[in-house]
Amino acid sequence: MFDTVIEMLSYPFMTRAFLVGSLVALCSALLGVSLVLKRYSMIGDGLSHVGFGAMAIAAAMNAAPLTVAIPVVIVAAILLLRISGNAKIKGDAAIALISTTSLAVGVMVISLTTGMNTDVYNYMFGSILAMSAEDVKLSLVLSVFVLILFIVFYHKIFAITFDETFARATGVKAGVYNTLIAVLTAVTIVLGMRMMGALLISSLIIFPALTSMRVFKSFKGVVWSSGILSVICFCIGMTASYLCSTPAGASVVLVNLAAFLLFTLFTIIRKNGRR
Q1: What are the contacts of 64-70 at 24+ separation with CB within 8 A?
Q2: CB 28, CB 230: distance < 8 Å
Q3: pLDDT single digits (tens) 114-158
Q4: pLDDT tens digits for range 148-197
């Protein structure tokens, strides 16, 4: 087993995938706790579709995908917050509105320009070969930036997650920190799309938080558990992808599903043991 790991990490593309993927998985899990508790977890799915549309336009323009997609998705995240604040359009409807429109734009641009090629397939379903050296450098810098901001504003994020009304009453600028969460989520989604794919990246936000909530009851406990669990599941999924020649994104999601089922089983056994 140890020899297999050494062989796997001897390939530069695998080293890049593990390095960037672990950081993105960690960022996704930390942000996911707040998003799941605020019942806003599907924002990841919506923003990933926006990212797909932006990357399709970047491919048509022969521009760098990340440099085009990141600002577009950040704007979409902020717009999503503004629309959701409108009493006439609720959060889930706003996400559906933006995600379907972006996906349609992406498909239309692709059909009129490059056609359905390997790059488009990689954007949809992910590929460990999609990360270039430039992508890695940008992803590392932005991932560390996301982690630092989350740690610095941890207490404010905690406050608006559990009781936004009370947080406003105590002087916390809830709108600013909601925007911060949306922007950090947008950056994380775009960084993870290259490996996980637009259709599967939201699983990194949802699964670790839901899995940890099966066992841990405190916010800090769930945050710690989600971060550690997400990185472990990502590494196991990537290893399985390498050994079995399966898609990276799907492998990671299935490992996360297995972890969720194990934690659920543990919770059931613990409850029955107390009776």
Answers
A1: 64/134, 65/123, 65/194, 66/135, 66/138, 66/139, 66/190, 66/191, 66/194, 67/138, 69/190, 69/193, 70/142, 70/186, 70/187, 70/190
A2: yes
A3: 666 656 667 777 776 667 777 788 888 888 999 999 999 989 888
A4: 999 999 898 888 888 888 888 888 888 888 888 888 988 888 888 877 87
Picking from 217, 213, 218, 219, the residue whose alpha carbon sits closest to that of residue 263 is 213
> What's this model's pTM, rounded to 2 decimal places?
0.87
C-alpha 73/C-alpha 32 separation (Å) is 17
Q: Is 39 left (phi over 0), alpha (psi -120 to 50) or beta?
A: left
Give backbone dihedrals phi and psi of 248, rounded to 5 degrees, phi first.
Answer: -60, -50
State which H helix or E strand residue 96 sits in.
helix 91-112
The architecture (CATH level 2) of 2-268 comes to Orthogonal Bundle (1.10)
